[in-house]
Design goal:
Blueprint: H1 6-9, H2 15-36, H3 43-74, H4 81-106, H5 122-141, H6 163-179, E1 187-191, H7 197-202, E2 208-213, H8 216-238, E3 252-257, E4 271-274, H9 281-294, E5 300-302, E6 318-319, E7 324-326, H10 334-341, H11 363-371
Parallel strand pairs: 1-2, 1-4, 2-3, 4-5
Antiparallel strand pairs: 5-7, 6-7
Helix pairs in contact: 2-3, 2-11, 3-4, 6-10
């Protein structure tokens, strides 16, 4: 219960004016707190954040007491009731956000990609079920049977990497991009995209999604699926009861048909993904070298096959995780980047239809928590 002791604010205080002044002061304290939220959350950083949090909490508590006093002393006055009710809602939002911040800075660092679920666990059952469904979907949509080796030419068929593994990898790269302070929107390229199912999944994290596919029929099938998905999303948004609104990604993927060895635009992407795009070892090494040479510094590479770089194709990149590599920026310290990413969360919030409700003085804190992936 907030204090209503007149000794706190004195007799005859203009409660409305005092509330406005206190709200401005709380806003200033919360802005300072938000500026202090910078991973990694080392012990010195935690102490700094907690000190800023305590200063903001002091002023928020004073504001709460003032609102409570207004309710007790002037509850019958309807003129400013809406303002006081709004402040009460913001104070509840503040309490929730402050608790989330405390839990965030005290949490242990998260690995880039999760460990393999224990055999027989619920997590393993969910992953297996998801991947089996994805494989059946892949088989149903592919214009021909996916095979591991094609008799004609050096290129693999359309190999479906398990979807749960892919999602873990792209979430990891999103966290790394945040840790690099890379501004959104981000871009994603899949080399050898097949029928394009991974491009649809990549739209959850990336606003600009491109696939390149050697086999023309597969490329055409992928582009048709991208166009159909975008059309259906647009029609759902325009429907009288748009139940999909705010839940589906708005990015639009494009597919190019061509030889990845001749692709000239590797330097335009934040993340490049390839899953054994070429069967021939020599040509695959050429492609790996080409991608790394042409990629801009700071590009993340997802190469989820154990023999990536086995014959020298990974030169110029640094391994961050088992299947995630980085073409480093000048002076960039990969170990520090991974350490910082360990304190970046998994959430990529979707802006709700019509925008977010008024978050008032709490907005700087909620924005910081969303930016670092800890609030939806």
């Amino acid at each position: 219960m907030f204090s209503t002791d007149p000794d706190v604010y004195g007799e005859g205080v203009n409660l409305v004016a005092s509330a406005a002044k206190l709200e401005a002061l709380v806003t200033m304290r919360v802005e300072a707190l938000a500026a202090a939220i910078q991973p990694p959350f080392t012990p010195p950083r935690r102490r700094k954040i907690r000190a800023a949090l305590a200063e903001a909490q002091t002023e928020a508590t004073r504001l709460g007491r003032l609102c409570n006093r207004w309710i007790v002393e002037m509850g019958a006055d309807r003129q400013h009731q809406g303002r006081v009710l709004r402040l009460g809602q913001l104070l509840q939002l503040w309490n929730d956000a402050a608790e989330r911040l405390e839990a965030t800075i005290m949490a242990a660092p998260r690995p880039l990609t999760p460990d393999t679920p224990r055999p027989g666990s619920l997590n393993e059952a969910v992953a297996v079920s998801t991947d089996r469904f994805f494989e059946r979907l892949h088989m149903a949509l592919s214009p021909d049977t996916p095979v591991y080796h094609v008799d004609e030419g050096p290129f693999h068929g359309d190999i479906p990497l398990p979807m749960t593994r892919f999602q873990n990898l792209i979430r990891a790269t999103a966290r790394l991009l945040r840790a690099m302070d890379r501004p959104e929107p981000w871009s994603f390229l899949e080399v050898g995209c097949g029928i394009g199912l991974k491009l649809l999944a990549a739209q959850e994290q990336f606003a600009h999604v491109v696939g390149i596919e050697y086999d023309a029929p597969r490329a055409a099938a992928a582009q048709a699926m991208m166009d159909r998905a975008h059309l259906h999303l647009t029609e759902a948004d325009d429907a009288p009861s748009p139940w999909l609104r705010g839940t589906a990604p708005q990015a639009r993927a494009t597919v190019q048909s061509g030889d990845a060895l001749e692709f000239a635009d590797y330097g335009s992407f934040d993340v490049i993904y390839a899953y054994r795009p070429i069967a021939d070892t020599g040509l695959r090494t050429q492609l790996e070298r080409r991608i790394i040479a042409d990629a801009r510094p700071g590009t993340l590479l997802i190469m989820p096959y154990p023999d990536f770089g086995a014959t020298g194709g990974a030169e110029g990149s640094v391994q961050l995780d088992r299947f995630i590599h980085l073409k480093p920026l000048p002076g960039q310290k990969p170990e520090a980047l991974v350490r910082r990413a360990g304190h970046v969360g998994l959430i990529r919030p979707t802006e709700p239809t019509g925008g977010r409700p008024d978050e008032g003085f709490v907005a700087p804190l909620t924005a910081a928590l969303r930016h670092w992936g800890h609030l939806s």
